[in-house]
What does this fold into?
Amino acid sequence: MSKSVPDELEPDPYTLELYEKALKDGTEKDQSIRVNVVGNYRQGKTSLTKRLLGNKMRDIRSTNGIEIGRYTCHKTQNGKYSYRKIDDKSFDIVGRLVSVALSKETDGKQWDDDQELLQLSLSQSLKQATASNLDLRKQQVGYSKPERTACTYDRQTSVDGKSTTLRSTTNSSHEKIEKTRKATVRSDQEIYSFTKALHKKSAKSDTHSQTAFDVWDFGGQYIFYATHTIFHSRRAIYLLVFDLSLDLKHIVVDEEFPTESGNRSMEYFLQFWMQSIHSFVGTADGRQPKVILVGTHKDKVKGNLEQKQRYVKNYFDDIKKLFDGTVLLNHLHPEVFAIDNTDPKDMSMALLRETITKIAEDETCVLEVPAKWIHLEKNMKERMHMKILSMKFIMAIDSENEYPLGDLDQVKLFLRYHHVKGTFVYFDEEPISEYVVLDPQYLVDAFKSIITSERFCSLDKELRQVWKKLMTEARLEKCLIERQWGQPNNKAKLFLQYKDILLAFLTKHHVISEATTFDETSKTSSGLGWYIVPSLLRDQSNESELHEFLQGKQQALVTIVMSFENHQIVATIFHRYIAALMAKWSNVCTSGKPLLFSDLCVVRLDVMHAGIAKHRLNVIELSIVSLCPSLQVQSTQADLFRRFSEAVIFHEFGKLRDSIEGFRPYTLEFRCNHESHCGNGSNNTESISSLDDSKIIPCPDLMAHDLNAIDAKAEWFGGFRDADTIPNLRLNDKLISKISHCIGENWQILGHELDLTHVQIEHICEDHPNNTLMKIYHMLKKWCHKMSKKATLDVLVQAMRNCPTLSVQWDGIRNIIDGII
It folds into this structure.
């Protein structure tokens, strides 16, 4: 299966246009797939991974966080499969460039036409890859070892009204490129290495490249689940691992964090992982990604051979029954495996390797990747020890390549691709758009070094109290961060040097959130100097505390209810949602205590309003309360709170979902908030669409009051703001790309409203026959080019409002204006 653009980048027209432009300069094939080893604590995942990869079974410890390695699979002479680790430090630049050259030949193009490609392949990056030529290279480029003088730089920025400073203490070698001319002189050794590899590979009849397996061993502690959703991928094969010797009703206790896993059983965690995989990266029909059930501890199953076989068969059947009647069953591969990790000759392991390889051959999507990216990827991987690079430094690295990407947007596209792939971590959003994390595991390591720090705190009275607050109140103090990241064993990891940048990345991932308070004088939120780790929140809310806060105040007429089909993942989503809420608004306190629990978060939206978010089993509920008892809830705040909440939750699920028209991971319902419900809302819920049926509707509980449906819907789904409040903002390609997602059926009518001719619209349709999103994007681009400086957001919105039959997602337009997500 081959395609040019990764699924994750395809929904963005601007990105797609950049990608297709980059491919014109030459391509290479990316044939890789992840093997994600998942499951709960103490199920044998790490032992299984070691056996799978043929590693020695010594010093087996539970994985804290995620362990990552890259391998190729080889078929041995006896027909079995084995894995060989790819060392990123060696980075086979010659081999990859040879593959690029061969792909050109097999495309039927003449070698003489590929001189530019050959020039590219023998560039400075190839020179640097030839270790035997190091001395000669030093003479040619005037190589000298840079000074390692410490320096500090700050970056001041503002997000959601909050001032943020990212500080990084680095060496000057990190931010300075030696002023040398670009290497253009190539040695005989370089030409010989490339030519020899080229002839050797082209002499083989089969030029099919090998699939690279990125093996990710996920830590099973429930405490790390907050980080795992970051690394889900559809381009993966999942091994769902469990202990066959334990009953499915067995309560799993995490020995390191016994209070975190609660009374959750084996059955619960199996459902959690299946629901998580499907919800975050699964196709609608559940056909992708594939999940292989792997039972470990086969040696502990009791009975004779026949009894053991019957037990194992029934165990796997019972697991499959958990998903009967759902699309989750479609994810499961028909072959299941019972493994004895203690037996190096267990034939089931050999069959598992073979099955993984065959699935990879069937499922791996071979992507076309711009060949010019090879050099920058190599240069960045050579600096993995630096942990984090600034964008300024990356641009300087790129400029030193003989064939640089040059354009900032092209470099960002390269980084976005590798972010999706899991190579680097990059967000094109302030305040972290200026930095790239060179290894995603680095973020997990930074987080887990804090969470697993109890043994370092036991001898320090001050830290013991801080640790206790973290475990009981989810309160993360900076002194604990600094002490842990400054430990001798962490110094080489540079956690402390990159403290502010790492905290910004963890905040962006919704793993932690800075605690803030609402300043009544300035009417803004200000930081308190510590962080909340929502996944560590334990206590559930007490109804009396919320009732005390709500007493005498007016709520919105209805509570918005987001009802999820897969309830095991809702707690994880709610924790990440809380982190996003607290990154934008401050927490509300009553009697000196924050209204913040594992199932409740109340935030201060403005001077007059507070927003309430609650989690109940399979739902997340939103409500608004007026802080002035005599005043009703204002629609603008309710509408903003709803849109922000939906955008965050959709974003958590939306990794691959933008291509699905009208996708929503939940159904929208409501509860009646009449005072007769005593502040709890009605027991029953109704679909939000029932508010459209008539002006007055009955209470969902059929109590002796009615509900004004028009007013109830207007509170949460307020009309679009007046034209004079829409900014007179000149449109660029990125903004147009975002707006394109909000326009649907009858888009051609908008084109005519914008004075595009029928012929121009026909040409756009012919250029992009199978992609409506690209048609809309290029229609808007054509208008912008025609109107130049007069093509502004307010003018476009007015044109959209002039087209009553045009399908517009107005929530999306409002989110763009308000800068939400």
Notes: Residues 513-716 form one domain. The CA atoms of residues 571 and 615 lie 7 Å apart. DSSP finds 31 helices and 29 strands in the chain.
